[in-house]
Amino acid sequence: MSYSGRPLPSHLRNTSHSLGGAQSSSSQSPVLVARIAEKKAELANLKELQALSAGLADQMQMLADKLNTLSDGTEAIAAVLSNWHNVLRAIHMASSKLPKPKEEDDAEKKPEAEAPLPQTLVRIPTQHAPALIPQSTSGSIAD
């Protein structure tokens, strides 16, 4: 047998000289084998735990990203809802300032009773209207 230059750890050294030869080495061999098997099982469990922990960390990171997106969306919705009061107030102001037509003139011009519409609050340019009209009619036919 060749001898390597480094000494063995104390728990792996053969203690047959001090404890009675072959009996102690044969009794320690199954103990060492069992301990090695136990350590291998522990190592396998630790590797599995490490892999599961990495997966959990990835899932938590994805959840954090989704919560950030949800938080941003909530802030946007809050901003829109805070503006609704101003929008409704502007519509009310525009509706209240409508000119009231005289009942005599209205009866002569329009026999049906229609409520007056509020003034236009938003002006939409009609430059692209001819291109949009075929799209809107084809969409309504398909529905």
Automatic annotation (TrEMBL):
At the top level, the lineage of the source is: Eukaryota
What keywords appear on the UniProt entry? Cell cycle, Cell division, Centromere, Chromosome, Chromosome partition, Cytoplasm, Cytoskeleton, Kinetochore, Microtubule, Mitosis, Nucleus
- Region described as Disordered: 1-29, 95-143
Primary residence: nucleus
InterPro entries in alphabetical order: DASH_Dad2
Q: Does the keyword Cell cycle feature in the UniProt annotation?
A: yes
Q: State where composition is biased (Basic and acidic residues).
A: 100-113
GO cellular component terms listed in the entry, alphabetical order:
DASH complex; microtubule; mitotic spindle midzone; mitotic spindle pole body
Keyword Cell division appears in the UniProt entry? yes
Where does it localize?
Chromosome, Centromere, Kinetochore; Cytoplasm, Cytoskeleton, Spindle; Nucleus
Q: Which Gene Ontology BP terms does the record give?
A: attachment of spindle microtubules to kinetochore; cell division; mitotic cell cycle
Task: Locate the compositionally biased regions of type Low complexity.
Answer: 16-29
Bias type Polar residues, positions? 134-143
UniProt lists the family membership as follows: Belongs to the DASH complex DAD2 family.
* Name this protein carries in UniProt: DASH complex subunit DAD2
Species per Swiss-Prot/TrEMBL record: Delitschia confertaspora ATCC 74209
Taxonomic placement: Eukaryota, Fungi, Dikarya, Ascomycota, Pezizomycotina
